[in-house]
Amino acid sequence: MNKCIKWLLVTVVIWLVGAPVYAMAIQTEQSIGIFIRDDVYHDYTRFLVGRQPQDITDFSGQFIRRDVVDMIIAQQALHLGGFDKTFNYQVGKINFRNTKLLEQGGLLISFDTYWYEDAKSLADKVYISNAVIRKGEYFAGIFASPHNKKVFNLHTLSDFNQLTSVSTPRWRTDWKTLSQLPLKELVAEDEWLSQVRMVSMQWVDFMLMPLMPQLNNQYVLEDIVLQAIPNILILLDDSRHFVISKRHPDGAQAFQALQKGLKILRQQGAIEKAYRQAGFIPDLSEQLIINLPLTRKLAQRSFLK
Q1: Are 51 and 123 in contact (CB under 8 A)?
Q2: Does the pLDDT at position 221 exceed 90?
Q3: pLDDT per residue over 162-201, tens digit each?
Q4: Exposed, middle or buried: residue 302 (CB in 10 Å: 0-12, 13-18, 19+)?
Q5: Are 92 and 191 a contacting pair, CB within 8 Å?
Q6: pTM attached to this predicted model
Q7: What domains are defined for the chain?
Q8: Which residues lie below 8 Å from residue 175, measured CB to CB, with a gap of 6+?
Q9: Burial (CB count <10 Å: 0-12, 13-18, 19+), residue 20
Q10: pLDDT of residue 222
Q11: Pairwise CA distance, residues 282 & 226, whole Å
Q12: Which one, of 36, 71, 67, lies nearest residue 51 by Cα?
């Protein structure tokens, strides 16, 4: 009898201890971890100021940037497509670890869009969404230390002969674009924050970054300040896409919802509107796209008249 009571007590204790764990597991299944770079998450929360991503219709204002628009568009599309799981953000200095996690199934989706050239190399392990930023819509700024005067004297392609830049071959479109410029030197550095520091310290002259007109095209992180050359752009001639892990248990469902939601947003004109309001897709009438071939420059000028 005593033995039966003992086993009954053990069973009750195990159930009491296990119940919270089970509840936590259910909650974890409904809430999906997403890795986000800390500076992006900081601007994302400051832009939302307590609002839900699916409620955003105006993408103008302070703290908006391409990465933040990406995050909001992805969540709006998933919501419209019927994907109702929530996300909890793991914030840190994250770069290429995201790609490994996507390949392994440890990360459902990258809320930072991928170049198509980069995404297609992962096609056996990830689903690739329809284009979010279409080919011909991505114009980057030339960002440098405000104290680096020679960069701000740039006016023609030949002026690149005196300049150095930094990027990584892992970003195929960025690397290809910079490799086509007549640079003095192109330095390879895989970590994005290291690239920023190198430019800030003037160890290299400039890097390409998305436009941030709401922030006066100035990137600020702690004691780092980088400024874009006014009215000069670089065309990165590729499209950008969300990627979803094929190995994640929610991957197929999330991809179906994402594609459905992106189609709705595209039909509404909401995607292009968002990037234009954020200033990421610029008004080209007063801009020099410095790396366009001559024939394309002439075609652009004719179109703008």
Answers
A1: no
A2: no
A3: 999 999 999 999 999 999 999 999 999 999 899 999 999 9
A4: exposed
A5: no
A6: 0.80
A7: 25-135+239-268 (3.40.190), 139-236+288-296 (3.40.190.10)
A8: 167, 168, 169, 186
A9: exposed
A10: 86
A11: 19
A12: 71
DSSP string across the chain? -HHHHHHHHHHHHHHHHHHHHHHHHHHHHHEEEEEEEHHHHHHHHHHHTT--GGG-----STT--HHHHHHHHHHHHHHHTT---EEEEEEES-STHHHHHHHHTS-SB-SS-EEHHHHGGGTTTEEEPSPSB-TT--EEEEEE-TT-TTGGG--SGGGGGG-EEEE-TTSHHHHHHHHTS--SEEEE---HHHHHHHHHTTSSSBEEEE--GGGTTEEEETTEEEEEEEEEEEE--S-EE-EEESSSTTHHHHHHHHHHHHHHHHHHTHHHHHHHHTTSS--GGG-EETTS-HHHHHHHHHHH-
Q: Is residue 205 within 8 Å of residue 150, measured between CB atoms?
A: yes
Q: Are 109 and 74 in contact (CB under 8 A)?
A: yes
Q: Is residue 109 a contact partner of residue 254, using CB atoms and an 8 Å limit?
A: yes
Cα–Cα dist 30/271, whole Å? 27
In this prediction, residue 62 carries a pLDDT of 85
pLDDT score, position 290: 93
Query: Residue holding tokens 């007549």?
Result: 182
Does the pLDDT value for residue 109 go beyond 70?
Answer: yes
- The whole-angstrom separation of Cα 102 and Cα 118 is 13
